């Protein structure tokens, strides 16, 4: 009688014998993926932000090219995402006379965008600079931000902006601010230029006339009529429309006025015959 031997491994299912091998392969695959993910995270969070910027966008404006803006911002080819501090860059850019405001946005991990808003002239004056009559440009805050031909559009501005006279400058320079009591006048000029530019174009000169004791009054010179219009320190779109309406009424009635006074709230005018007499 022959004897037989039973080996358990001979009767184990094939899938049970291959399972440990599959687990090992899966572990190795997962390990590879974990290593790759770790390398990617290190590159994305640790290396890329320290490398030179891949994308840098900045809006160029007349008189403010890309080179000028980046030099003022302190950004060059070696600048990185980490080295760019938005608040510091914004502050540096607003030191440029032509820049009113700047906004810096960082896009992780290697991009920066800069948006600059340029100052706009709302009025101009003339002052002596080194013995020559030079155009002076004011923004809506009464700030002198450009002189002479600093603005590319200087030639056209001379035909559209009202001229401010009567202001004494001890030493004119870019960055000079007018007294606070004059700022509301320039703010109103800015509003009128935006809402009714055709109305502002009817005025060629606005003279700031200091009162005997305190404050000031305004004397307006229309562009198309040889007449003086006296008013208080406040000037807005509504009052300017009313002045132009009165001028039209006087002209339609054939009244040759030399001066119209709106300071008391009622219209008073003086004819040229009375002035000469």
What does this entry show, briefly?
Helices cover 36% and strands 25% of the residues. The protein is of the alpha/beta class and 277 residues long. The relative contact order is 0.07.
The amount of beta strand, in percent, is 25-35%
Could you say which overall geometry the principal axes of the C-alpha atoms support? elongated
- Count of individual helical segments: 9
* Major sheet strand order: 7-8-9-10-11-12
Per DSSP E runs of 2 or more residues, the count of β-strands stands at 12
Largest sheet: 6 strands, mixed
Mean pLDDT: 84
Distance between the termini: 159 Å
SSE run: HHEHHEEEEEHEHHEEEHEEH
Radius of gyration: 37 Å
Helical residues, percent:
25-40%
Domains counted in the coordinates: how many?
Answer: 2
Give the uncertain stretches in residue-range form: none
Please state the structural category: alpha/beta
What does this structure look like?
The longest helix has 34 residues, at 14-47. The protein is of the alpha/beta class. 36% of the residues lie in helices and 25% in strands. The protein folds into two domains: 52-118, Ubiquitin-like (UB roll) (Roll), CATH 3.10.20; 123-276, no CATH class. The termini are far apart. It is elongated, with a radius of gyration of 37 Å. It has nine helices and twelve strands.
């Amino acid at each position: 009688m022959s004897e037989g031997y039973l080996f358990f491994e001979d009767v184990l299912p094939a899938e049970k014998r291959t399972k440990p091998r599959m687990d090992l392969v899966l572990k190795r695959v997962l390990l590879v993926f974990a290593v790759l993910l770790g390398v990617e995270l290190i590159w994305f969070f640790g290396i890329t932000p320290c490398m030179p910027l891949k994308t840098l966008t900045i809006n160029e404006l007349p008189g403010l090219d890309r080179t000028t803006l980046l030099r003022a911002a302190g950004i060059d080819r070696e600048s990185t995402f980490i080295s760019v501090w938005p608040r510091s860059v914004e502050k540096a850019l607003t030191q440029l006379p032509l820049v009113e405001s700047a906004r810096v946005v960082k896009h992780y991990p290697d991009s920066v965008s800069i948006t600059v808003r340029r100052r706009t002239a709302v009025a101009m004056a003339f002052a002596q600079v080194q013995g020559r009559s030079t155009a002076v440009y004011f923004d809506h805050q009464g700030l002198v931000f450009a002189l002479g031909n600093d603005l590319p559009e200087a030639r056209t501005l001379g035909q559209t902006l009202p001229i401010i006279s009567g202001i004494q400058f001890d030493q004119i320079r870019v960055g000079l601010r007018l007294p606070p009591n004059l700022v509301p006048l320039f703010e109103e000029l800015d509003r009128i230029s935006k809402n009714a530019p055709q109305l502002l174009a009817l005025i060629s000169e606005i003279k700031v006339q200091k009162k005997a004791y305190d404050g000031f009054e305004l004397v307006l010179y229309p562009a198309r009529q040889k007449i003086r219009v006296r008013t208080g320190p406040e000037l807005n779109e509504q009052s300017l429309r009313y002045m132009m309406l009165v001028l039209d009424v006087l002209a339609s009635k054939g009244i040759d006025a030399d001066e119209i006074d709106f300071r008391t709230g009622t219209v008073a005018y003086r004819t040229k015959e009375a002035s000469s007499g």
